[in-house]
Amino acid sequence: MSVTTVNSWNDFDPLKHIIIGRADHCCIPGWEPAIEAKIEKNSDMWGMWGPRPLETVEKANEELDYFTNVLESRGVRVDRPTPFQWNQSAHTPDFSTETLFGCMPPRDVLLTVGSEILSAAMMMRCRFWEYLAYHNLMQQYFDEDPNFRWEQAPRPRLTDNSYQLDYFDGITKEDLAQKAKECDFVTTEHEPLFDAADVLRLGKDLFCQHGLTTNRRAMQWLQRHFPNHRIHSVNFPTDPTPIHIDATFVPLRPGLIINNPERALPQEQRKIFSENDWEIIDAAWPAHDRPPPLCYSSVWLSMNVLVLDHKTVCVEATEVNQMEQLDSLGYEVIPIPFRNAYSFGGGLHCATADVHREGTCEDFFPNQVPGTQIQPI
Predict the structure, then answer these.
(1) Which of 151, 227, 286, 308 could cross-link with 302 by S-S, CB 3.0 to 4.6 Å?
(2) 10 Å Cβ neighbour count for 325?
(3) Domain residue spans of the chain
(4) Which CATH superfamily is domain 15-357 in?
């Protein structure tokens, strides 16, 4: 058995070891205060909850297994989480849920920064216990790597104080868009809340999306937890339901980022990139005009790619426009069938969590722009 080294500072240095999720027993969660951020009332999922159809689970697992085999054939070590029976209610002194969620998207839960893997303070009640699916792996890494730091962000209480309970009452799409521009989200600043998939790791700098799943209080906590890093808040005002940054703003290699053209980073926030010779280009348009059935995510999972190194990238096999763009940028593009897995929590990047990439903590942004770092509330 390979001896573990935990080390990853970004999403593009050569990949050596990764976690890929599983779809087993995954559920559509019942109602909770933030669920309307994920499921619109005109969705085919509205009002549904409980186990996902077995046929869809099997198809998703086939794609996850294929993805695993492709990476292993290229010399990448792949570990898998331990699924629970997610179709069960759960209780804390502060709340209860009808079901749990699943463990297909480890990127939402686990944030790797150097030799540390941090379990996030997630904002959905159905995902409160999700970190336990990775507990056995964390134990193993702790035993095998003497430098591994196994960390847990403060467990949120997720009482009603963490949400604006009337946020969606009578709200229109126009209202939702205006609230997003004002950074007024269903989650409050009562306690630190963040999903790991909202944190973009670029060496010494961590860029955090301020949105439904990550608040500014969490960024303050991250700044204290990582005192040698610079924490920056970014937001994308034209996204009315900002959930996770990796279908909006995706670094491909040092100096190059693709940005969702429907969710452009504001000019003021682009300065830190332009001042440090980073190019931001529009991502290719998705090949599909709608997500698969029973899917939380948008069509922009097309840009949710997994970079293996500075010249190689995995892209969902039907996302032909994104594959063509990356080919034109000089990448070897590996097509991975993954559309059946989309519904279980996202795309290729979502379905993974870094354990080891080559490289060190580089300073990609030596020219710091005043006002870009997170400020006290």
Answers:
(1) 286
(2) 21
(3) 15-357
(4) L-arginine/glycine Amidinotransferase; Chain A (3.75.10.10)
